[in-house]
Specification:
By secondary structure, this protein is α/β, with parallel strands linked by helices. The chain has a single domain, classed as Rossmann fold, CATH 3.40.50. Helix content is 41%, strand content 15%. The protein is built from 13 helices and 12 strands. The chain has a 5-stranded parallel β-sheet, sandwiched between helices. Strands 1-4-5 form a 3-stranded mixed β-sheet. A hairpin with a 2-residue loop joins strand 4 and strand 5. Helix 6 crosses helix 7. The longest helix is centred in the first third of the chain and has 39 residues. The radius of gyration is 24 Å and the shape is globular. The mean pLDDT is 87.
Length: 398
Amino acid sequence: MKASRSKALAANLAVAAVALALCCAALEGAARVVVRRWQAQPGAIRDPLLRYHPTLGWEKPPGAEGWIRRPEYNVHLRINAHGLRGPDRPYDKPPGTHRTLLLGDSFTEGYTVAEEETVRARLERLLDAQRCARHEVLNGGTAAYSTDQEYLFFLEEGARYGADVVVLLFFYNDLVGDTPGNLDKPRFELQGERLVLRNSPVPPPTAGHREARAFAVKPWHGSVALRLLSDRTSGANPRLHRWLARLGLVEPESEEGMPRELWPFGPGHKDEVALLWRRERALLLALKDAVESRGARLVVFYVPARFEADDGAWDLTREKYAMGRRWWRRERVFEDLRDACRSLGLPLVDPREELRAAEAGGRRAYFVRDGHWTAEGHQVAARGIAGLLEREGLACPP
């Protein structure tokens, strides 16, 4: 009797094992079909379209295009003849036109959404709706730029468009991006309160550096399905990711200490953070002087990170880097920027409340894994800028 039961159990286990193996094979096959379809897409790339530039470090190649594919989006990028994303417009401003120039990084460039969904396009439509003038909004954003490069871009290129208003979109990692040590970009050092430009011209990079890579998926333990699972859980559910990593099903997160870019949110590194803000304030003042000397007005927009707009993301960030609940504050960087803008007389847009409402209400303003704005996030940003321009009397010609 026991022998027959053992045989039956063994047979059932064998059937279950075969069924599981077939299921895994089917999942793997489906994953490979999907990835092959992605890779077969003409012009599919993983990175923004960039090339070396001697005084800015890098820029977008005029006339370039491709499809940037990530797990959460697939967006067609087209760079116009002047090296900007968006409609190609001449430097000379047409009569009766009111121009706004946006400066910033990847949030401003908006490569995670279609061009018509970017903050540039949405802001232009909102301003045009006021019917006080013909509005043109130009997108001067470039992936991975910081305030130093945005200032230099304005001096070399942005000022040529004759904008009436310049909006600087500030992200917290601009503070560290402005610091010396990056050999592939220009940098400013402070001598007293004076900015001194270093590493300019920037040394040419090695072949392929900062060029867009073709889209590819690297299998995990030989499995494309496990790679897709790893990409999915890494940012969306770190606890599940760690548990799956212990089972060998996903790639473990690399062990890393506290990134320097997070220092401004915390209580330590006071001297270093103070220097970061001294340099940032000097750059803001230099940009303000450059903008106003050309008869325009400068406005600053605060770009919150996802963890500043989503409570769950903040909790995961504190857990990952062992941030104490008492001393680490996600409001700290905004408050310091607000103080700097007040001292310089610069209007500041704060979109945090509306972005938090969107996240809490299920209208995702950020991609979970990527961390950049969705179309909803760009809409919130455009509304915030348009509202401030109207309140400050900058939305229409005087």
